[in-house]
Write a structure and sequence with these properties.
Layout lengths: L2 H44 L19 H28 L13
Helix pairs in contact: 1-2
């Protein structure tokens, strides 16, 4: 393996790990925010049910779900892109491991 290919493979592995970590953090944080917004809206709606009702029902919050869902999808896409970059770096670092044209001797 020449030095240039080694540096490219190392860069791809490190970059893929960074993208994977960033995408995971983005997806988990926005997913928890969306879940929290949904739970708050559900409890506000349940406060209007007669059996579960309260004397002063809560206002149903008006949330904008577009940007959080877009961030969640972006985090998931970054997560997948991170794995693609890691696999590409691994195939550059160990080309014989991923070569299907060679026959197995054993």
């Amino acid at each position: 393996m020449n030095v240039r290919r080694g540096w490219v493979a190392t860069g791809l592995l490190l970059g893929g790990a960074a993208i994977l970590l960033g995408g995971t953090v983005l997806a988990v944080t926005t997913g928890s925010q969306i879940l929290g917004m949904g739970v708050q809206a559900l409890w506000a709606w349940l406060s209007y049910v007669p059996i579960l009702g309260e004397s002063n029902p809560r206002q149903v919050p008006a949330y904008d779900f577009f940007w959080p869902v877009l961030a969640l999808l972006g985090g998931f896409a970054a997560f997948l892109l991170g794995w693609v970059v890691i696999i590409r770096g691994a195939s550059l670092a160990w080309p014989a491991r991923f070569d299907r044209s060679q026959q197995n001797a054993s």
